[in-house]
Batch of 3 targets.
Target 1
Amino acid sequence: MANLTMLVIVVSLSSLLFVWSISSFGAYTGGAGYWFSSRSLANQERLSVESAFFTATGSANNIVTLYVRNVGAVQFNIASVYINSTLYNIAQSQVGVSQVQKVQITLSGQTWGSGNVQTVIVATLRGTTIRTVWTS
């Protein structure tokens, strides 16, 4: 009788473990599927900073104008721009395939000097970045 009781306990616990594992793996694969599909789109994003202009307002050298071109297969949204490692959140602007978007930034807490090297990083919502170096 004890053997039969142990057999029933082992079978019922095994079936509970099986049901739990199937439901858990299903939840994980759903999240992973979304992650891989969004990375697939990010892999099709290609952006190019065509030009950068450094101008002044009054006596302060604090305006940076970038022209970003979409050379990829999908449209993207510009989420942020980093200038010399300083984050500038901008109003999200959508750039269609083969289109150019003007991005104008007013620097805060820093200015540019003539002849200085400026590092510019443009980031999209999907996480694609491009790093360029310009001389102001």
Note: The first strand starts at residue 47 and ends at 57.
Target 2
Amino acid sequence: MSIFRLSLRVALIATAFTWVYGQDELDKGLVPKSSADQTVVDAIKSPGLTVVHLWAPWCSNCQAELKTGGWLKKIKDNPQVRFYFVSIWNDGGDGRAMLKKFGIADQPNVTVVADPGPRRGENKIKQFAGLPVSWIPTTWIYKGGELYYALNYGEVRFAVLQQFLEDSKSEWSHKGEPKLEE
């Protein structure tokens, strides 16, 4: 076999390998965020409280939360808080019809968005707004661009959510308190 043929085969194999395995991690970082991700990233930078709720209409845990009426009550009881219902792992569907059924979608302090990604497979999102996502429902509370609380695994207890909202509103500090001796 000539050197030319060997070089040609190596080049073809390398090209095929690159084509099959696609982008490397650096290239993936250059892909723009979804509009839902960007909408939420922009919203959480505001000085007020923002609740980001990752969910999907097919998820039984998410449905259970809606059936209790807890979300609607929290939304109505906290008109100064902005709530973002982000449908993920739902092939781009936003679940608005289900949220309307429970009186949530049309509340003035609610925004409904959807990640365009698939429900299953390698391309399913594993990160949203810079945080890892491994389970739904997931609920995050932000104030002034900072994450205050993250409820990452399962249904939220609404009394706990309300306590977290109240705690996030308060201004507290340990400045001026004596330090413990070591």
Note: The chain has seven helices and seven strands.
Target 3
Amino acid sequence: MGLRVDFTNVGSGFEPIPDGEYEATVYSCEVKTGQTSGQPYLNWQFKLQGGEFDGRRVFYTTSLQPQSLWNLKKLLVALGYNAEDLKGSFDLEPVMAEVPGMECVLVIGHEEYNGETRDRVLDVKAAGSSSPGDVALFR
């Protein structure tokens, strides 16, 4: 006798989260390499907190290329790092180890990818900086 499963009433995956702002915590941050560029970037996983989507994970990337480091700096400031401390060269590994559990607010919108509508983090804001759950238009 084989192992059987029943796919009756099983959907194709998660439905997109409505556009808006959501409280979240950093779940993980790891270095990855771009498939096309071959360049390193940080892959962020955030976990939504509270409401209908509590526990749902969303993803965000920050490039480590010099012309894009402004985005990483903005994200770190939103997580509570002092902008004055983020000058010059420094080791990211301790930061990556420290960020899981840090709170923020994610602005979520959508993008089309391979014919599917997917959640897209449009911005990361400091925790307590807005009214999570309020739908905002960003198009």
Note: The longest strand covers residues 20-33.
